[in-house]
Amino acid sequence: MSAIRLLVLGAVRQHGRAHGYQVRNDLEFWGAHEWSNAKPGSIYHALKQMAKEGLLRAHEVAPSTAGGPPRVEYEMTEQGTEEYLALLRQALTSYDQKMDVLSAGIGFIVDLPRAEAVALLRERIARLDQWRSAVTEYYTPENGPGQLGHIGEIMNMWVHSADSEAAWTNGLIERIEGGAYTFAGEGEPFVGILADGEPNPYAAPR
User: Fold this and answer.
1) pLDDT tens across 144-157, in order?
2) Which of 8, 9, 40, 70 has the least CB density, counted as fewest CB within 10 Å?
3) How far apart are CA 97 and CA 90, in angstroms?
4) pTM here?
């Protein structure tokens, strides 16, 4: 799973309708250009590709002031909403997701009801525990990973990462169950997008 599809769909959804520069500006505001493949070329390609797939609807709204092609705004279709929610749920539950995918999922977690978000995070922990049990039972030598020399550090690294992820996820669940953040159906969510034309202090160098 690529993070770019989830990031772009989520950014468009937050605006209702957005043009490519708005999506790029939002993702850079979140720092996604540093921790994911959300680079300008990837963003514009994803917008055009998902419009072809029927996940986004493209609207030509105004001619370019520089004499280029008309500005295009995108909005989610019903199919796009289904795809977005499926990608979001997958990002939150799959134990083997890359960090950029999990980061994108956390960034949009409040688009789900609170109870569902907690349930998905608990499923993630269960999958991490299941993976940890499977690999340590199969790969750990009788006398510990050190028996494999420095190669044993690979297993140490992966097990430590799984334990750290589970601990962090448990902490997030506690915060959510304690009332942190505004989830779907609870009121006005946190606004994490820039208004059109608002300067972005975290923009990547142009």
Assistant:
1) 656 667 877 777 78
2) 70
3) 9
4) 0.84
